[in-house]
Design a protein that fits this description.
The protein is of the alpha/beta class and about 290 residues long. The protein has helices at about 25-40, 55-65, 85-95, 115-130, 145-155, 170-180, 210-215, 220-230, 245-250, 260-265, 285; strands at about 5, 15, 20, 45, 70-75, 100-105, 135-140, 160-165, 185-190, 235.
Length: about 290
């Protein structure tokens, strides 16, 4: 079983499927990462604000998989935005991860209330990219208005925009904008985990359409959702600390959804997000310090 690869807009090749570690407690992160790499994952997504970068690095080292075979992705938190602050944010992440370079670094939030800081942070990422300590740069949670402003005021087109995306929330307008500019859409909560908590009306894991499609392939609803992402050219980063689920989420390369099945999943879109609106994240309420390495 082999992961598919995606070539980013600067020529860097990235495994399409990664292990996410959002909300993964530090004391179980290393084991989850090590298990994922044992199963066959070669892409790990973390963030400074997850407070588990150090344990991600431990898991990679414990796995025995050579560093150059693992695509490492992290994100700079808003507390470290700015032309001078962002390189230090990168240095903290690299030191915690125990790596000399990071494959993909994203700005975690658009920070609309201080977007000039966001622009300066992105320009700092452009310099890290030019220096070779980062192989690709991008953004996360950028809606069209912020992405278009970033494109107008910076030089390097983001390689990736990581956004909430699952069958119930597909943001087709933003995906179209990504396609227009050669930006890869990367899905967080790709199997609709966010629909299973927080008082959501229905869970994607129990969706009759997804379950029916899964039965036809001998696959779970989660596997169907991941296959849907991959066949439509997206990257997905499902998260789990359960070894069985980690393996199940990677077991999606031996079947193919039909055009009719893809269309049926597309039709599940409700247009309702589960995560916070971008404007909600601001320096007053969310600028906690990222510890030194």
């Amino acid at each position: 079983m082999t992961d598919t690869k995606i070539t980013l807009n600067n020529g860097v090749v990235m495994p399409s499927l990664g292990l996410g570690v959002f909300q993964t407690p530090p004391d179980v992160t290393a084991a989850a990462v090590e298990e994922a790499l044992r199963v066959g994952y070669r892409h790990i997504d973390t963030a400074a604000a997850y407070f588990n970068e150090r344990e991600v690095g431990e898991g990679i080292r414990q796995s025995g998989v050579p560093r150059e075979e693992v695509f490492v992705e992290t994100k700079i938190w808003i507390s470290d935005y700015g032309y001078d602050a962002t390189p230090h944010g990168f240095e903290k992440s690299a030191a915690k991860l125990g790596v000399d370079y990071i494959d993909l670094v994203l700005l975690h939030q658009p920070l609309p209330s201080a977007f000039n800081l966001t622009l300066d942070a992105y320009r700092a990422l452009e310099k890290l990219l030019a220096d070779g300590t980062v192989r690709a740069i991008g953004v996360s949670n950028f809606m069209p208005e912020y992405l278009e402003r970033l494109l107008a005021e910076t030089s390097v087109v983001p390689a990736v925009n990581q956004i909430e995306l699952h069958p119930y929330y597909q943001h087709k307008e933003l995906q179209a904008l990504h396609a227009e500019h050669g930006i890869l859409t990367q899905a967080w909560s790709p199997i609709g985990g966010i629909t299973s908590y927080g008082g959501a009306e229905k869970s994607a894991f129990e969706d009759p359409t997804l379950l029916e499609i899964g039965r036809g392939h001998g696959k779970s609803a989660a596997q169907v959702m991941l296959r849907w992402h991959l066949q439509q050219g997206r990257s997905a980063i499902p998260k789990s600390v359960n070894p069985e689920r980690i393996a199940e989420n990677f077991d999606v390369f031996d079947f193919e959804l039909s055009g009719q099945q893809l269309a049926a999943i597309d039709a599940l879109d409700t247009g309702v997000r589960g995560g916070p609106e971008a404007d909600f994240i601001n320096l007053t309420d969310h600028a906690f310090p990222i510890p030194e390495a």
